[in-house]
């Protein structure tokens, strides 16, 4: 954020109150969410009561005296949008952190309202991620908003980088919220080595940056996404990680303003704060914005206020978990759900997709029941034994996050596993699809399967 004082701007020099994150003064003609400089530090208006104005100071108030200069900039936070956003790594204010030039182009205010419902279209386009556990069982649609629920120790940043590289989107906008320097460098190195920077823009806040600056990242990201989706009619995929740290920053500001906390120390406005971001997902006539956002879980607690509110807003969830049987992280087919997948499965994908998806998850569920019987000392049937062996291969070849193949190959792999471990009747797929896709040369006598 530039610290230059605009010409002919009134300078206020008396602060009435200073908290750990905010300051209050008397001023007139001020807009809500207007940006300001307090002793050269970037700040934003968060409350106006008559002529009493409260400013949130992003770097914090430590060392700020009551007689410092306060300069209001006359506009909310803005981002300069243009084609030079391509391949850039920027901070929470939209300034370069990649040693490149400052952005040019027109200024756009960030954090505006979501898209007018009149302009929204029914989502109908497939967006692939290259990850079999998503594209096969939880297929995503352009204009969808969906979170990745994961424990903090899961490799979700690697998954997001894979999605960025393998995605069928025209444009990727990454919002890194509270990234470690290692994770930031991982993203940067991965994108540079893959030679895909021309279609990627990254807004990064690291653990070395003030936590309150994280509140700007999602709005910067969605503003850039709206520019490319509307002006260039591109299919834009927004990746946000980690929204739990964004919510923690909300909590920090709320608590330091002495607001009464709600559940789990979160502000009472949490639902609205999240919805304002997620509702930016939209399908236009041509361009679109799809949002995938990581939400880390504390101790796997899905009932915490952050995932709980998120689940009400978004259209499903993707759930990462460690599969100890194959020593890999998988996309859990039981706890994951894409509520819009029926809009593209069998319409934008092969006609057997829906039947194969349902059969695979059902047989995997039968394996889970068989494992419970085994753990409780019950005898297993031949079918139980086969489902357990199927589950290992199904998880290893289709659910693991390191499986990066196209959807047709996912379906062919599923048919191969069905034919290896089960009869046609046990799989329970329509006869006309079985005739067309059942692998040739596979016996239907499963008593010989080892």
The CATH architecture term of the largest domain is 3-Layer(aba) Sandwich
Largest sheet: 10 strands, mixed
Distance between the termini: 65 Å
Strand proportion, as a percent range, falls in 15-25%
Describe the overall structure.
This protein is α/β, with parallel strands linked by helices and 450 residues long. The protein folds into three domains: 11-72, Elongation Factor Tu (Ef-tu), domain 3, CATH 2.40.30.20; 78-343, Rossmann fold; 353-448, no CATH class. The chain has helices at residues 132-135, 156-166, 181-194, 217-231, 243-256, 270-278, 305-313, 353-375, 382-399, 407-421, 424-427, 431-437, and strands spanning 11-12, 17-18, 22-26, 35-38, 41-49, 52-57, 70-72, 78-81, 89-90, 106-109, 126-127, 140-141, 145-150, 171-179, 200-206, 235-241, 282-283, 288-296, 316-323, 328-331, 337-338. Helix 8 crosses helix 9 (382-399) and helix 9 (382-399) runs antiparallel to helix 10. The mean pLDDT is 90. A hairpin with a 2-residue loop joins strand 4 and strand 5 (41-49). Strands 9, 13, 14, 15, 16, 17, 18, 19, 20 and 21 form a ten-stranded mixed beta sheet that branches. A seven-stranded antiparallel beta sheet has the order 1-7-4-5-6-3-2, with no helix packed on it. It has a two-stranded antiparallel ribbon with strand order 8-10.
């Amino acid at each position: 954020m530039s610290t230059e004082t605009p010409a002919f701007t009134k300078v206020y020099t008396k602060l009435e109150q200073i908290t750990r994150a905010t300051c209050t003064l008397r001023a007139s003609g001020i807009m809500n969410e207007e940006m300001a400089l307090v002793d050269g530090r970037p700040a934003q208006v968060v409350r106006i009561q008559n002529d009493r104005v409260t400013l949130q100071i992003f770097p914090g108030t430590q060392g700020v005296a009551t007689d410092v200069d306060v300069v209001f900039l006359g506009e909310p936070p803005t981002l300069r949008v243009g084609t030079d956003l391509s391949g850039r790594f920027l901070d929470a204010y939209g300034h370069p952190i990649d040693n490149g030039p400052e952005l040019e182009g027109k200024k756009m205010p960030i954090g505006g309202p979501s898209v007018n419902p009149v302009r929204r279209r029914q989502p109908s386009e497939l967006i692939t991620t290259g990850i079999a556990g998503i594209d096969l069982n939880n297929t995503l649609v352009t204009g969808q908003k969906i979170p990745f629920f994961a424990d903090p120790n899961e490799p979700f940043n690697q998954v997001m980088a894979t999605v960025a590289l393998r995605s069928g989107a025209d444009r990727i906008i990454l919002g890194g919220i509270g990234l470690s320097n290692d994770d930031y460098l991982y993203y940067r190195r991965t994108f540079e080595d893959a030679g895909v920077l021309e279609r990627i823009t990254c807004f990064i806040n690291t653990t070395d940056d003030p936590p309150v600056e994280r509140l700007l990242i999602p709005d910067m990201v969605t503003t850039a996404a709206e520019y490319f989706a509307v002006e260039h009619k591109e299919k834009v995929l927004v990746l946000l990680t980690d929204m739990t740290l964004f919510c923690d920053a909300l909590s920090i500001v709320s608590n330091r303003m002495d607001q009464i906390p709600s559940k789990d120390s979160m502000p009472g406005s949490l639902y609205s704060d999240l919805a304002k971001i997620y509702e930016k997902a939209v399908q236009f006539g041509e361009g679109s914005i799809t949002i995938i956002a990581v939400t880390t879980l504390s101790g796997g607690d899905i009932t915490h206020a952050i995932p709980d509110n998120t689940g009400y807003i978004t259209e499903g969830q993707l759930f990462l978990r460690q599969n100890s049987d194959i020593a890999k992280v998988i996309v859990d087919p039981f706890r994951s759900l894409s509520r819009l997948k029926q809009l593209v499965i069998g319409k934008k994908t092969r006609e057997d997709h829906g039947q194969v998806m349902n059969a695979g998850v059902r047989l995997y569920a039968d394996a889970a029941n068989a494992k419970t019987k085994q753990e409780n000392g019950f005898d297993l049937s031949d079918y139980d034994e086969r489902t357990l062996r199927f589950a290992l291969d199904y998880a290893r070849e289709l659910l693991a996050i390191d499986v990066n193949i196209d959807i047709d190959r996912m379906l062919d792999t599923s048919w191969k596993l069905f034919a290896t471990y089960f009869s046609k009747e046990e799989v329970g797929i329509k006869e006309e699809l079985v005739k067309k896709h059942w692998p040739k040369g596979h016996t239907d006598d499963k008593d010989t399967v080892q």
